[in-house]
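Need tokens for this chain, all 252 residues.
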Amino acid sequence: MRESPLRTAWIGAVAALLAAGPAHGQVIRGALRSQFTARPVERARVTAVDRTGRVVGETIANDSGNFTLRVDARSVPFSLTVRRIGIEPSTTPEFELTPADTVDFELNLPETPILGDTVRITGMASYNETKYQEAVRRGWKVFPPAEVAKHRDRVNSVYDLLRWADASLMIPSRRNECVRSARYLAGDRRADRCMVWIVDGQVLGPLPILNPADTYFIAVLTASQSAVQFGDRAPWGAIVVYTRMQGDKLHP
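Here are the structure tokens for all 252 residues:
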């Protein structure tokens, strides 16, 4: 059997040739140790393969790194290969033992991590990121976080922020009046036709209580969109705001 293409690292050799064992095969008693720390290398698989490629014995080391392997090599030279996750697969030089030999080995192995396939770990989207993606999928008129971030610290009120965002809205000059859609005439006061503010998923009503600096993104809903989403709580349109309290990827 050809040696492993990885570096073979074995420190230690036959410690003793002991009394003759059973006539039907060789016996190898071994101890697996780390080359660098001398700690036991437990649960490794030890395989004996002769020069024709035939497996002539196999076992697994115990939790102390010790193993006993009976080999039926029929006087043909063979080598041992040790494999385990976390060590570099290693192969010994060939043994040339008589059928009745019993030998002890201490095998020192290099604990070189084996590189596997690259694993990409993707974190879950934050609450605000999820809500922003939902708003875009629903076709709402969305003002994204990056654009909002450019303006939120420059304005005095959330009404001023809304004026920058959407010129199609009728935004009052006084804060005790509601926002309405420009599609309704200024003098049309039937039911006020006020748009409703939705902040972090909660329906607040027609008058906002919100610091513009806390805004993460804004979405403006038409009457039909808000009626579908919020029913009779927002029959004339809605202004949906998610705040930085729920996370801000741009400015943590």
